[in-house]
Amino acid sequence: MRLFLLALLCGSFILGCSNEPEPLRIGSNRWLGYAPVYLADELGWAATANIRLVEYSTSNGVIRGMHNGLLDAAMLTLDEAILLQSSGHDIEIVLITNISAGADVLYARPDVAHIRELKGKRIAAEGGTLGAYFLSRILSKAQLSAGDIQVVNLPLYLHVDALKDNSIDASINHASVHTQLETIGLVPLFTSRDLPGEIIDVLVVNRERSNPKLRKRLRALWFSSLETWFEHRSKLDPRIHKRLGLDEQSLIFTLNGIVMGDKALNTRYFEQDFLAASIEQLQTYMLTSRLQKQPIDNKQLLPRCTGDRC
């Protein structure tokens, strides 16, 4: 299977073995919703397509990589992409990688029975990333203000230890840590399922460092890898377990809270203006909530061509 697909990718006019001198550098943190890129890297398809995956431990690391010119493309949430564009980067959304439908979670101690009871609590969130938006939406739903809680700016990988030593009361995290947090008594209080369609992950490219042919190659690589993964889960899940540091139970639990960005979903979002509407809605909220300082032209994030013309 592997040799056949590598030959197919190499012989394709879309993914053809490129003569480009430098690989396209894609930054990503280890999130299951980005698994097809990690799988393509594992199987050697990314290298064949002249694409290099650059791994970061946090989303903030990916964002800094874009700011510092170390990356040509990045896996981000839509709110992060809007903020990156508003800071002066000319980026374009190439595809929707996934939509969170329960995989982003606010975990709290069992004495907090409702989000209104978060008042006065210490809540850990990774600042500068999705965590800030997610927390803002939780407070809005709970009719609380930022002054009603204590925000603890902490990378996701430090949350479990902070909960164990009782230095925080709640954590905005991924469902992948569900088993660990359940073991120490934490319960899910609010999830992205309570914000349907709001938390969207995207692949963005720097327009100055890419071209239509390269963007087409990225989309083809993503869809090929996603389809192969879903067709051969029993063989490929162990590779993803190892690469993303997830056990089988955590992978299944997290994947149940994700809608992966297949061709059908991307067609709907790009060709039926779902993405444009999502950008407008999200930016309006972030400007009103002061999560975003400078507005952007919503169209600047969208491809300047569609379908086979790209």
Please describe what this structure looks like.
- This protein has 310 residues and is α/β, with parallel strands linked by helices.
- The two termini are 29 Å apart.
- The radius of gyration is 19 Å and the shape is globular.
- The protein contains 13 helices and eleven strands.
- The chain has two domains: 211 residues, 3-Layer(aba) Sandwich (D-Maltodextrin-Binding Protein, domain 2), CATH 3.40.190.10; 91 residues, 3-Layer(aba) Sandwich (D-Maltodextrin-Binding Protein, domain 2), CATH 3.40.190.10.
- The longest helix has 20 residues.
CATH class of the largest domain: Alpha Beta
Low-confidence stretches: 10-18
User: Which geometry do the CA atoms define?
Assistant: globular
Helix proportion: 40-55%
Instruction: Domain count, please report it.
Output: 2
Structural class: alpha/beta
**Order of strands across the main sheet:** 2-1-3-10-4-11
The biggest beta sheet is recorded as: 6 strands, mixed
Helical stretch count?
13
Listing every helix as H and every strand as E from the N terminus to the C terminus, the arrangement reads HEHHEHEHEEEHEHEHEEHHHEHH
Q: Kindly, what is the distance between the CA atoms of the first and last residues, rounded to a whole number of angstroms?
A: 29 Å
Strand runs, count:
11
CATH superfamily of the largest domain: Periplasmic binding protein-like II
**CATH architecture group name of the largest domain:** 3-Layer(aba) Sandwich
- CATH fold type of the largest domain: D-Maltodextrin-Binding Protein, domain 2
How would you state the average pLDDT, rounded?
91
Rg result: 19 Å
The proportion of residues in beta strands is 15-25%
